[in-house]
Design goal:
This protein has 366 residues and is α+β, with helices and mostly antiparallel strands. The chain has nine helices and 20 strands. The protein folds into two domains: 235 residues, P-loop containing nucleotide triphosphate hydrolases (Rossmann fold, 3-Layer(aba) Sandwich), CATH 3.40.50; 113 residues, Nucleic acid-binding proteins (OB fold (Dihydrolipoamide Acetyltransferase, E2P)), CATH 2.40.50.140. Helix 2 packs across helix 3, helix 2 runs parallel beside helix 4 and helix 3 crosses helix 4. The protein binds adenosine-5'-triphosphate. Adenosine-5'-triphosphate binds next to strand 2 and helix 1.
Length: 366
Amino acid sequence: MAEVRLESVSKRFGKKVWAVRDFTLHVEDREFLVLLGPSGCGKTTTLRMIAGLEQPTAGLIYIGDRLVNNIPPRDRDISMVFQSYAVWPHMKVYDNIAFGLRYGRRKRRYSRAEIDRIVHEVARLVRIEELLNRYPSQLSGGQRQRVALARALAVKPQVFLYDEPLSNLDAKLRIQMRTELKYIHEQAGATSIYVTHDQAEAMSMADRIMVMREGQGAQLGTPNEIYFRPANRFVAGFIGTPPMNMLEVAVEGEDGAMYLVSPLFRILLEDETAAKLREKAVKKAILGIRPEDVAVTLEGGDFATEVFVVEPQGPQQIISFKLGESLILKSLADADLRVSPGQEVWLRFNRGRLHLFDPETGTRLN
Ligand code: ATP
């Protein structure tokens, strides 16, 4: 097994498009690292450079201790699983899985009995043992993706690279497969780098997430760090459904205390947050507050407002409130409270969960 290191890696396509810019990333041995970000932010290009399918314009890529910039893909000791299940249509499942062991760039020769043992072992792990005699055309999408996964596992690579492997599956199967993939990763214990734009997938599977934006790293952290302490406004807005609410506020000091002020509310800040804002001489900020950190009651809170829209979502309601130009979203479980449009309610922000960002740079202030 091996760590993967990218040192100041850049990739330019043509004269103008910088798909990846000065990107540094250290993936630890056996870690499951997710590259997450919106379409076009450079995730796939990064993965393809690690695989050797693209040559970096600048920077160094290491797999283990080995600088691999000039090493062809087949000699990098990696397996890649794609969105389109790249399995051989003219070969039975068994032969698809055995392919890399028979013909790949092997570390050693495998006997027929060894190949048979490995094929059954990985087929059992991804739960397709009863399908070994079928052709890919006789399989569902989810089963075909399991074949691709089994084939990747069979050769026991140092590093697994996944490029949106679940995005062709329907929503239900995707959720089931991500749980299984996580289990398989824990069994295989290999270093894995996984590209997705699906934040729920990233949150549920990753040891750490690298959020990317415009070819650069926006934040690297555990799913909890990314969710509860986003380093900037971009990450804060990208992670979470319904998304984090963002409001412009003024920061005012009075008698040694600090307040967040908007036309509707005046919120006293906790000492620690106040000290940070004072130190940075902050006058204006973007206040971020997640829907679950807004409490809704019939009376008593930071301010009163009217319910704007109610969207039923099975066991919960997503309700929205107008706050000047902004809309605040909040999900309410059925048991909490039933509200209807136009009704007056009170909102209260959870003080320990206020996120403050610089209006110009978007950097976290607290
Ligand atoms: P998606 O989630 O849509 O796949 P991504 O984050 O994986 O997006 P990349 O595919 O890495 O993004 O693309 C990053 C940028 O590089 C995009 O602006 C894309 O248009 C550009 N790009 C990617 N491949 C090429 C190429 N072969 N030639 C020119 N531009 C490219």
